[in-house]
Amino acid sequence: MGTDPEKDSARGLAQMEGYLLWNAEIAQARRRARRFTDQLPWLTTAQREDVERVYTADRAAASRAMLVRVSARAAELRAEYSERYRRLRARCVAAAVLASTAGGACTAWTYLAR
Predict the structure, then answer these.
(1) Is the overall model pTM greater than 0.70, yes or no?
(2) Closest residue by Cα to residue 50 from 35, 32, 31, 33
(3) What does the domain layout of the chain look like in residue ranges?
(4) Cα distance between residue 28 and residue 49, in whole Å
(5) Which of 12, 48, 67, 86 is deepest in the core (most CB within 10 A)?
(6) pLDDT tens, residue order, the chain (114 aa)
(7) Rounded CA gap, 104 and 89, in Å?
């Protein structure tokens, strides 16, 4: 069986977007690390590089943890709203069936009452 080109394209675009967003997050962490070490002029070059590396790694870990939490919450909300939609759709179908049955009964009653 073949694959769905639209789904493949959407998946590829989502992966590319994720890659670009993550790289932007890491670049932002590196800029913040540089600003932080700029406030510490007494550091040697090696110390500055170490502090920037540790700071960037810490920010990346914090960002990853936040993304995991957001992703988990999004999955919870998706499941919750899917269930709510399923129940609402079932109630609407039941109401439509009831309305059409009641309308048919009224028509039959009117016809029989003549």
Answers:
(1) no
(2) 33
(3) 5-82
(4) 16
(5) 48
(6) 557 888 889 999 999 999 999 999 999 999 999 999 999 999 999 999 999 999 999 999 999 999 999 999 999 999 999 999 999 999 988 888 887 776 666 666 666 666
(7) 22
